[in-house]
């Protein structure tokens, strides 16, 4: 099953390699990983999307907590949360099909951020399923390049994600 | 203002370090100049790996943090096996490495190696100190991390300029580790649950692991088992955690453990693991391990709980503290209710050991390796500290030397490191000089760190090195005999040194026994020698096997008895 984890870490030398090394060394999957500084400059938030059965996920969380620089780990899958990812996609277009692409971009609430006579760059954000749907729709035009940020997530409600305590009851 | 080197020495002293195992080198020359004038005892091994194992042996024998030091590049990489050995067995160790100057890092300079990167998966934590102002705080944290919680090695990589630069040294009093707060005390409700289940159990069993040794919990354990009368087994590495003379002691479990322990685990209806991590060598095939039992598990490390074996009653905490709590609560329960059942069960388990004890066939013409260990046991009244390498000799030592106290048995259980025994004995002897220290080794492994014999001679360490010499890499040969049609692929040591002459050339004493009748005398002679290492070459039966044996992947109750 797919899980999305928020890992609050001290912003110290080598912390990312400790976390990515833990995943590779113990054979866990990383589907996506993002790292960014938080509102406090000495803390970073790492968001990892991973897959595994319950036992594997439990081990991942416990192993992450063993790392000295890891302050908090939340499996956001168990909490009400908002998830977003941003992609930039470059497509082949020509004068004949350009307006078709514009229509699709509009209906997905994307943005055109670059345009040439034979190409277009689109920016779009959303949850994974929406982005996948968008990619499938535009694929026939011809994808020149696709880059994505990987998922970001934040808990709903007034508490910081790392301090959330109310789990979704039925998961 | 003090230099980084001076601050390092102040920090070591503040942590109570009196002995370090170090090897100088290019980036450390300046530090060694300072070190020479300090009152820290510096032991110069003859290879950095020997230094790391010695620090490990010192830590295991004393319970203190072992410290080793090496220069940048190859000096540091030579420590890797030692670090890994300590990590797997959770031994508190500080590994100090010199690094090239900060402004050169990343430029592939002479003797540069990313030792923090290389060792990342085999340390509890590691640091690269980039500023002398951070040095004292870093070392304070490093020692704290190494010795608390589930202990382990912590590496501190210190560049040459950080050792030279100056700042004002102030003793660090506070540790600011937000992400590291090990849970010292078990939850009282959980401890109550553990006792409640024990109260109603008819076939309970305690499995003692290495975490009890590092928590110094033997006293509390003894009190507990004497009170509730539960058959108790240890893991391989936790031997001595409960004295083999205790009435509740059954043996040790696992691949070459005793029959009674392995059967008891399979028959038990309730198992309490006191800080054993259920390693594959202890459990055998997982799906049939302890299949009839409810399981409680006390461990400092939450990740060890339900990692391999599903646990019903988890207790996160220090083994000693939890046992202390259990001992305080124990009278609130009714132990007489199932006492008859428990006593019958203990008798039954003990009878299994009588039926099928560790055994071998004595010969009066050729020395059996088991006989050597038995003779060592007798000659030392079971009182010596014993270290080993890995393999057949390691298992025979565990089977025929009956351990009586914690920290008496020092062996690389998790990694199974060849070449560990001799340097570990060296470290143990430095830590506990008034005890007899014997390294029982094979003729294969002893050559892997033989250079440390020189160190032992230099520092007048009167350890004994008992080589069970069968001219084979015996354990692999045994597997080849049993599972590969006796095809002895590269396990025969066709040539080897004359170990007596080798010892003498190092300035040590060399002895040899070729007949069973000589064994006792040679051991006696070796024990008379003080302050000089003695190497004894026991010329043993070549194709003796270790039994019982649980084949790899088999259930723990399916032992080859031999």
- Helical stretch tally of chain A: 4
Low-confidence stretches of chain B: none
Question: What is the residue-averaged pLDDT of chain A?
Answer: 94
Strand segment count of chain A: 9
CATH class of the largest domain in chain B: Alpha Beta
Q: Give the radius of gyration of chain A.
A: 19 Å
Query: Strand-residue fraction of chain A?
Result: 35-45%
**Under CATH, the topology of the largest domain in chain B is which?**
Rossmann fold
Distance between the termini of chain A: 11 Å
Low-confidence stretches of chain A: none
Order of helices and strands of chain A: EHEEHEEHEEHEE
| Biggest beta sheet attributes of chain B | 6 strands, parallel
Q: What class, by secondary structure content of chain A?
A: alpha+beta
Fourth-tier CATH superfamily name of the largest domain in chain A: ACT domain
CATH architecture of the largest domain in chain A: 2-Layer Sandwich
Which band does the percent of strand residues of chain B land in? 15-25%
How much is the average pLDDT of chain B? 96
What share of the residues of chain A lie within helices?
A: 25-40%
CATH class of the largest domain in chain A: Alpha Beta
Topology:
The complex is a heterodimer of chains A (171) and B (562).
Chain A: E1 2-10, H1 15-25, E2 32-37, E3 43-51, H2 54-66, E4 70-75, E5 81-92, H3 98-107, E6 111-115, E7 119-126, H4 128-138, E8 143-148, E9 152-155
Antiparallel strand pairs in A: 1-3, 1-4, 2-3, 5-7, 5-8, 5-9, 6-7
Chain B: E1 2-3, H1 4-14, E2 19-22, H2 29-36, E3 41-43, H3 48-62, E4 66-70, H4 74-77, H5 80-88, E5 93-99, H6 115-119, E6 125-128, H7 135-147, E7 153-159, H8 160-164, E8 166-167, H9 188-200, E9 204-208, H10 210-214, H11 218-228, E10 232-234, E11 249-252, H12 259-267, E12 270-274, H13 280-283, E13 294-299, E14 313-316, H14 319-329, H15 339-355, H16 369-379, E15 385-388, H17 392-400, E16 409-410, H18 421-431, E17 437-442, H19 452-458, E18 464-469, H20 474-483, H21 499-505, E19 509-513, H22 516-528, E20 534-539
Parallel strand pairs in B: 2-3, 2-4, 4-5, 5-7, 6-7, 9-10, 9-12, 10-11, 12-13, 13-14, 15-16, 15-17, 17-18, 18-20, 19-20
Antiparallel strand pairs in B: 1-8
Helix pairs in contact in B: 1-2, 1-7, 3-5, 3-18, 9-14, 11-14, 12-15, 16-17, 16-22
